[in-house]
Each structure stands twice: as structure tokens, then as C-alpha cells.
Amino acid sequence: MAGQEGVGDGLTYADAGVDIDAGNALVERLKALVRATRRPGADAEIGGFGGLFDLKAAGFVDPVLVAANDGVGTKLKIAIETGFHDTIGIDLVAMSVNDVVVQGAEPLFFLDYFACGKLSADTAYEVVKGIATGCMEAGCALVGGETAEMPGMYADGDYDLAGFAVGAAERGRLLPRRDVKAGDVLLALASSGVHSNGFSLVRRIVARSGLSLQDPAPFAPEQSLGRALLAPTKLYVRPLIAVLKAGDGVKALAHVTGGGLPDNLPRVLPDGLGAAIDLSAVTPPPVFGWLSSAGGVAEAEMLRTFNCGVGMVVVVAAEEAAAVEERLRSEGEQVTRIGEVVPISPADEPVRFSGKLPF
Q1: Please, how many CA atoms are within 13 Å of residue 261, restricted to the half-sphere of its CB?
Q2: Over residues 200-223, mean pLDDT
Q3: CA–CA gap between residue 331 and residue 325 (Å, rounded)
């Protein structure tokens, strides 16, 4: 029939931009990374339709499951523009497992979702290698994931990430506890930098500064600006699990992400209670001073957008504060007392600041 294509002219999925064979080859390449994350409860290979986890083998008796998911936001643009893909997977794991541990749960397993326009096996491998590194540091197993090649949805070279973590705590051990009260101490655990929030503003500040991502970082001249900004989100799982298992002093934990201290700390405090924080006690990494000065960003905006050096807040009974602080230091954490829980009225701001950030 006139106009009919011959059989030899038929289209394939590869013609449409999706290479199934390349995806399968990547899965085989990733299996060694996944095996390195095995832990009690998870020992299956990837490649099935779902990941398996045995709670009994992990030692739980009467567990409650805790789940969290997150992405990395526009920090991905820094990784893509610089070609440094080796740490962004650590960010992906940290953003979810840090949210699991603040509820008193031990992260058990993780799954990732990698979406791109055209699959680069080398880029995907570097990303998943970072994910495996993050999982090993957090003590959770990488039990599966998904690689989606979607031409037309993403530009060549672009990709997006999502991560999903599941943990567990024995019933009755979940946080925050109900006995949070005025006078409880607030301990700050230092951040490693910007972590994975506020990068839309970070990128605007970089553009305004006139610097390229290849230029030396003004706050860390031994590194390029791009590499310095990609410092991965700190994982707090192991030290916090160690402290939680050691005693009952910790009453609540707050992961300081988007919204900073003003938005995240009230999430773990009961009605009628707020936080009084002395900003002069905080020691922000140098990147925050540069962001503030180069972008002309006011302190209030810095506090609402970035962690400003505080990646996690530990709410602890006053009489247990010294012991918890010592334990955290022994686990390698940089710990600072930054304030206390205080009574507030409905008209009060839930977080009250005194002093100034020492930029």
C-alpha cells in the first residue's frame, strides 16, 4: 500500500531514546556496590520487583516502622555543571535517614530513583556509588531502586534523584517524647556546610558574585567553588543511635533542613513551649559568611533558608545534658549548647533568638 512503512523501517525503543540493554548492563555493574551495603535483615540481590527486609533477623521484637523520602533539590545543578557526581548520592541518603533517626528509629533500608533524559552509565554509577557510601555510613542497606530514561522530559546531561528510607524503633521508644519541658537543654550538632537546602539562593548568589564554579572558593581557596559547595550533607545516624541506646536523656531531635531553625525546631516541641537560642554560641562554617556578604542576605533570611552551622538539634533533660554531650563528643560530633526550652504564649514566636551569628 502506498505510504506504508516496510517491516525493516519499524521503530524500536532505542530509536525513541531508551536503551534497555544499557540499563540492564548498569544494574549488573551496580550489584557490587549494593552488596557492600548488606546488613542483618537484608541480603538479597537487586534486580527483583521489590526489596526485601527481615525485621526479625535485624533483632526487632515489636517494631514500629518509620519512613521518609526526599531529594537533593537544585544542588543537583552544581553537580551537573561541574561534572562532580561522586558525593550527591550521600546527600540523597542523608536527607532521608536523618529524618528517620530524629523519630528515634534506626534506618534499615534505602531505595533510590534516578531519572534522566539520556542514560550515562558512568554518571549513574558515580551517583549510586555515593548512595552506597551514604548507606554504609548510616548502617542501612540499599535494597533496590529505579533508573528511568525519559527523553524529552529531561535535557541531555540532566538528571533528578529521589530517595526513600525506612527504619524501625521498638514500640514506646519513638521521639519526640511527651515529657519535653521548660528548662530542657538544646544541644547543636555542627553541620558540614550548606547540606542540601537553599541552593536556589546559593546559585543566585554565585551568579551575582561573578565567580564561576571552577574558580577557587573565596571561603575555601584550596578547592574550586563548585567542589566546596558540593560538600555532602552530614549523616548523624550512627552517633545519635549510639546515644539513644545508651540512655534516656534525649527527649527530641530536630533535623535542620529547609526553613532552618525557626521552622524545624518547633516541630518537635509541645504546644506552649518554644526555644530560646543564643546565636553567638553557634560557629557557622565559612561558607555561610560568604553567602551572607556576597548576596547581601539579612541574618533573618539566612536563618530561615540555611542551617547556618546547626545540622541537628538535640533536646535533652538538663540533668542529662553533660552526659549526652560527652557521649556525642566521643562519637566524633562537634557539640555546642545553644539554648533551652522555654514557655511561650500563643502570641510569641516559637523560636526566640539573642546575640548575632558570628559571620
Answers
A1: 33
A2: 98
A3: 10
